[in-house]
Design brief:
Strand content: 15-25%
Shape: globular
Oligomer: single chain
Number of strands: 4
Order of helices and strands: EHEEHE
Number of domains: 1
Low-confidence stretches: none
CATH topology: Alpha-Beta Plaits
Mean pLDDT: 97
Helix content: 10-25%
CATH class: Alpha Beta
CATH architecture: 2-Layer Sandwich
Number of helices: 2
Length: 64
């Protein structure tokens, strides 16, 4: 699994951090997503898929 995010389109809602805190974080100054692990372990798959699904800006891409 490989994850990419489009920081330019991030609205800073933080739903990704709530869903997968091991994989996503937010910048303190503006809340924009920080990708902590672009290739997380398999046990993070459900959380990452949830994060992608709940992202209001739809900026999270998950590829196999």
């Amino acid at each position: 699994m490989h994850i990419t995010v489009d920081e330019e389109k991030c609205c800073g809602a933080g739903q990704c951090v709530l869903a997968a805190p091991e994989v996503f974080d937010q910048r303190e100054e503006d809340g924009i997503v920080i990708l902590l692990d672009a290739e997380p372990p398999e046990e993070q798959r459900a959380a990452v898929n949830e994060a992608a699904a709940v992202c209001p800006a739809a900026i999270i891409s998950v590829r196999e």
